[in-house]
Amino acid sequence: MLGLFERNGANDMAYALKALSVKNSVISRNIANNDTPDYKATKLEFAEVMENYNLEKSKKRVELSLTNSKHMQIKDLTLDAREHVRFQNNPSLRNDGNDVNIDYEMSQQADTSIRYTMYSDLVGKKLSGMVDLARTQ
To answer: How many CA atoms lie within 13 A of 105 on its CB side?
Structure first.
């Protein structure tokens, strides 16, 4: 049986917010290292992260139980967006080997900020709807 948060997608949006937070950290690190010699820029593809999340979520889970104290413990699936951070592999036009493109990073930061605001607004609306529903009961 699905819980209240699974039914209305709040968990999905919470994961999206975590992924966007990781993406913002990656972008901030790239911007901060704009003048660091030989620094290689990294990126996080939000669409790839969410596709992987949806794929893992859709897999059928087999319920297992421990029948002996010597059995291995079953670990719950935890998805970490940081596993999707990759090098950008930009061609470097600079003599110091740094491949950060500050214009690209700033545009990605703006895009991430807009997405984060949108998802947090949606989560807020869902939660306020749940509060309103609880009040009427």
So the answer is: 21
C-alpha to C-alpha distance for 37 and 30, rounded to whole angstroms: 12
Segments forming the whole domain that contains residue 16: 4-136
What does each C-alpha distance from 74 to 56, 80, 88 come to in angstroms?
Answer: 16, 18, 36
**Angle 129-132-9 from CA coordinates, rounded to 5°:** 25
- Structurally, the chain folds into a number of domains equal to 1
Structure tokens at 24: 């913002």
What's phi and psi for 55, nearest 5 deg? -65, -45
Angle at the Cα of 38 from the Cα atoms of 34 and 41, rounded to 5 degrees: 55
CB 18 within 8 A of CB 79: no
Q: What do you get for the CA distance between the two ends of the chain, in Å?
A: 21
pLDDT tens track, the chain, 137 positions: 344 555 557 788 889 999 999 999 999 999 999 999 999 999 999 999 999 888 888 775 556 666 777 776 655 555 788 888 999 988 887 899 999 999 999 999 999 999 999 999 988 888 888 788 778 86
The CA distance from 4 to 24, in Å, is 29
